[in-house]
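G., the chain you wanted modeled:
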Amino acid sequence: MGRQLYAGLAKENITITRITPHGLRHTHATILINKGIPPFTIPERLGYPVKMIYKVMATLLKLSCL
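Predicted structure as tokens:
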């Protein structure tokens, strides 16, 4: 089904970026962080170590200061 979807979009000159399940997890973590979800609850939901969440948060803060 995914290939058909991308082929149909290509015919209409619509391009979207493909996202992997791993990328989707990172996106989900980023959305949760931006929504103000406490960082210690995110690892429970996604199975990440707490250290990883703080690394993502540090990256987001750096980007927001640019």
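Residues 20-66 form one domain.

Shout if anything looks off.
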